Amino acid sequence: MARRSDSPAAPRTPAPDLPAVLEPQHGLAPRLDVRVVRVEGLDGDVSAAHGHLIETRVDGASVGRFDLTGATLVDVAMSDLRAAEITARDGSWRSVEIVGGRIGSLDALRGGWDAVTLRDLRIDYVSLPSAEVTDVLFANCQIGTLDVPDARLTRVRFEGCRVDEVDTRGLRAVDLDLRGLEALSFTDAKALTGAWLAPRQAELHAAAFAAALGIRIAD
Questions:
Q1: What are 131-172's pLDDT values in tens digits?
Q2: Is residue 89 included in any domain, yes or no?
Q3: What is the value of pTM for the model shown?
Q4: Which listed residue, 30, 80, 94, 169, has the most CB atoms within 10 A of its CB?
């Protein structure tokens, strides 16, 4: 019998593979195939829905609605991103890094994320229902609400993060490392099967875990 590991497998999150020289790109548009470019100065409402962003940098965007519905992102780096709303439903992200900025809501319903890093971000609402999320790192992020109902999370880690509420209904998890996540509440403690917590976290949420198991606590 294989020896059981005493720690979760770490996510594999290499930096996006970007060439040294990127061509300037002014603006984005739906169904546009963008490759080996640097996009700067995006503002207003922007749509790249159902497009392809390959080996691309997006720096200093300050937008209202950023529509990435159905878009494919491969080897994409974004920095200092400010967006009231990012819609990325049914999108495919592989080797994507977002570093620094403020996002009102990030909606990735039914998204497919592979090797994604979100770092140094403040996000009011992250929605990943029914998403396939593999090899993802959240680092130094402040999140209001994190929704992952019916999502599958594999090798996902939080480092130095805080969230008010996590909706875990129907969550399926493998090597989900929550030890670096300060969470005020989980909606469904039973759905945390397969997740890793630190002893302090287990103590903090002990009453919720007991209730999920039908254990009564009384003086």
A1: 999 999 999 999 999 999 999 999 999 999 999 999 999 999
A2: yes
A3: 0.90
A4: 94
